[in-house]
Amino acid sequence: MSTFQPRPQDHFTFGLWTLQNRGQDPFGGVVRDVFPPVEIVRTLSELGAYGVNFHDNDLVPIDASLQERNRIVAEFKQALTDFEMKVPMVTVNLFTDPVFRDGAFTANRRQVRQYAVKKTMEAIDLGAEMGAEVFVLWGGREGTEVDASKDPRLALQHYAEGVNYLCEYVLDKGYPMKLALEAKPNEPRGDLYLPTTGAMLAFIETLAHPEMVGVNPEVAHEQMSGLNMYHQVAQALVAGKLFHIDLNDQKYSRFDQDLRFGSENLKAAFFLVKLLEDAHYTGMRHFDAHAYRTEDGVGVREFARGCMRTYLILQDKARRFNADAEIQGLLQEIHAEEGEDVLAFSQESVRSLYSQTFDRVAEGARGHEYEKLDQLTVEILMGVR
Q1: Integer Cα distance of 360 and 370 in angstroms
Q2: Check: CATH 3.40.50.2000 for 8-323?
Q3: How much is the pLDDT for 85?
Q4: How many CA atoms lie less than 13 Å away from 141 in the CB half-sphere?
Q5: Which of 48, 102, 107, 258 could bridge across to 289 with cysteines, CB 3.0–4.6 Å?
Q6: What is the DSSP string of 27-44?
Q7: How far apart are CA 224 and CA 233, in angstroms?
Q8: Domain residue ranges of the chain, discontinuous segments joined by +
Q9: Does residue 180 contact residue 214 with C-beta atoms inside 8 Å?
């Protein structure tokens, strides 16, 4: 039997910010000591992770001198070498510093928008230096509380201008890097522009280089607004735009909780894992979550270990689901009349549709055995099949 021990070939990654989280919330200060980046690299390597990702300022303070920046980066790169860890993705912090309190790419002030682009270019350079192939953009402050303050049409135009400029910068530098946009409905702004993965996919088609830009869906961000992450990721896969993914968990319609993966909605997590595995997704399985405020340093380690073990356990459940004779037999019956023909318009297909006979009443009376299918799925998850 599998021990569900993570290995580098599983491609599990964590953000520096996930283990750096010190347990603070709007009602209380920090409860844990600082977890230095080099120690995070060592810890994740010991736990079997593949790599570590970061915002620019998770590693290098925003006001660091060039000398300090180079020293920090050199120490971090040495740790990556020592512990055989990778940096597949890097992102930029455009939300913490007060300069971004009215947004970054969508700020009303032109100087702020230009500073945001410059800061992002520097983060892209840092990511390229680390070998990152994906650069994530989360517009954490791209939104409003006061709708009268911005014309959303102009704000989205500025947003597109910023992303287009960054694509041109990557092309000019010759970096083998793609951009992934991350959606969220609200928080920290009252309302954020481009609040869902579907909205991001539509936005990408308006850009100058849509081939370079994909999405980075996050479980918690979709579930905050009551959406089904499984469906959002499927849409991204169909579009060929799933460049990265953030795995965590969330109580529906709550504030952004970033819970340990699979800790809250086990069935939803199962179907997400099954989708990624069945689709042979080759990207990173990235965990964007943090330990409960109740935990100390030991608990943070257990949190990271738990995220990876839960994914591996659900991966095994997906294999069992796919190999279960009763479930697969039931699915064959359900899909027996699905057909493989593509409904393509032609005069002949119009005549064929009009000539067909269809017993609407009889079809409307048919049961579909979904209750049984769902129960069998639950039994797989409960370990009795």
Answers
A1: 20
A2: no
A3: 98
A4: 20
A5: 258
A6: TB---S----HHHHHHHH
A7: 15
A8: 8-323, 325-382
A9: yes
Q: Which residues contact 87 (CB under 8 A, 6 or more apart)?
A: 51, 52, 53, 54, 80, 127, 130, 131, 132
Of 171, 174, 185, 74, nearest in space to 138 by CA: 185
pLDDT at 41: 98
The C-alpha angle 276, 253, 290, rounded to 5 degrees, equals 60
- Rg for the chain, CA atoms, rounded: 23
| pLDDT at 1 (0 to 100) | 47
Query: What is the Cα 241 distance to its own chain's centre?
Result: 12
Contact present, 285 and 12 (Cβ < 8 Å): yes
Report the distance separating Cα 385 and Cα 381, nearest Å: 8
Does a cis peptide bond (omega within 30 degrees of 0) precede residue 152?
Answer: no
User: How many CA atoms lie less than 13 Å away from 246 in the CB half-sphere?
Assistant: 34
Looking at residue 338, what is its pLDDT? 81
Q: What is the pTM of this model?
A: 0.96
Which segments of the chain have a pLDDT < 50? 1
Cα 287 to Cα 50, 68, 218, 303, 308, distances in angstroms: 12, 29, 9, 11, 8
Q: Which residues are catalytic?
A: 55, 58
Contacts of 177 (CB under 8 A, 6+ apart): 124, 127, 128, 132, 133, 134, 135, 170
H-only helix segments in the chain: 16-20, 37-47, 56-59, 66-82, 110-130, 152-173, 197-204, 219-224, 229-238, 266-278, 297-323, 325-334, 347-355, 360-364, 370-382
Please give the pLDDT value at position 277. Answer: 98
Element housing 134 (H / E): strand 134-138
Q: Of the candidates 54, 48, 133, which has an alpha carbon nearest to the alpha carbon of residue 85?
A: 48
Which pLDDT value is given to residue 342? Answer: 82
- Measured between its terminal Cα atoms, the distance across the chain in Å is 15
Contact between 194 and 139 under an 8 Å Cβ cutoff? The reply is yes
Give the model's pLDDT for residue 254: 92
| Rounded Cα–Cα distance for residues 104 and 102 (Å) | 7
Tokens of 251: 């109580």
Amino acid (one-letter) located at 9: Q
Question: For tokens 């192939």, what's the residue?
Answer: 133
